[in-house]
Amino acid sequence: MSDFSAQDLTVPEAIALPWRGVVQVAGADAESFLQNLITQDLDKLGEGQALWSAFLTPQGKYNHDFFILRQDASQSLGQGAGFLLECEAERAEQLCSDFLKYRLRADLEMQDLSRYYKVQVFVCDSLPHTLPEAMVFRDPRKGASVWRSLTPMDAVLDAVQGADTGAAIEAYEQTRIRAAWPDGSRDFRVGKDLPAEGGMDRQGALDWHKGCYLGQEVTTRVYRRGLLKHRLVPVIGDSPLKTGTAIRDEEGKPAGEIRSVAGTHGLAMVLLAKINLPLFANESSLKVCPADWQEL
């Protein structure tokens, strides 16, 4: 089995991610509304930047995650100045519905704008193109150098049309897996997994000082008491891996589960107590290859 570190997966051309979407939150109370619900502190969100954040269940379990960035009125396709949330396209309407349960009298509008935006990524240190009509930001997570762009569908950007291929997506997926970056509900079980199990604690997506947010009490208790039992880690198999495959140790006892995959590479939710043992997924032997930032 080869090691992740031996691979050069740089793809400077734009790679379209059709499974990613965009939700807009706008209105006079948009910032205070979000600040009271999400795991990030919006006071840290500067212009041209994005934060990785989550919206949890009241029990502190994973519900949604997204990149959040500010949007001024000149860039708006909807209600004017506000926020854009890059999220899972198939769950964008559910994200809006889950948020609006807490709206009360807040002055805000929320809508799924996925059909108006094309989400693209560039796997490179610096952007090779100028994207005048796109909202561009560096992926804030540690472990890889990736730029993300939200481009209006009606914008003509000939310079960024060149890498919408299966091979380019495979290269991005391997980069993401190598960096131990979860991709929404492909890697988190909604309503069951803890955000820290997917690395959101060590990637700065959980703010420990901002005060209350939905699910904050359980999240803080797990962090303070060191109660985590699982971690999402990159693995390599000696044959192609399959999503949902159970992982077992040498004695055949449960040790975790394969989540998203790219060929022989995968992200797996593994019991910390067994992470250094020989592990198997069906007939495939697994090698655990933690990202540098994980420090397991």
Superfamily at the CATH H level of the largest domain?
Probable tRNA modification gtpase trme, domain 1
Q: What is CATH's topology name of the largest domain?
A: Gyrase A, domain 2
Number of domains: 2
Distance between the termini: 21 Å
Could you estimate the helical fraction of the residues in percent?
Answer: 10-25%
Q: Which CATH-level-2 architecture of the largest domain?
A: 2-Layer Sandwich
Number of helices: 4
Beta fraction: 25-35%
Describe the structure.
This protein is an alpha+beta fold. It has 2 domains: 14-178, Gyrase A, domain 2 (2-Layer Sandwich); 184-294, Elongation Factor Tu (Ef-tu), domain 3 (Beta Barrel), CATH 2.40.30. It has 4 helices and 15 strands. The protein has helices at residues 30-35, 92-100, 166-178, 216-225; strands at 11-16, 20-26, 51-55, 64-71, 82-88, 109-112, 117-123, 135-138, 146-152, 230-237, 246-249, 254-262, 265-271, 279-281, 284-288. Residues 1-8 have low confidence and may be disordered.
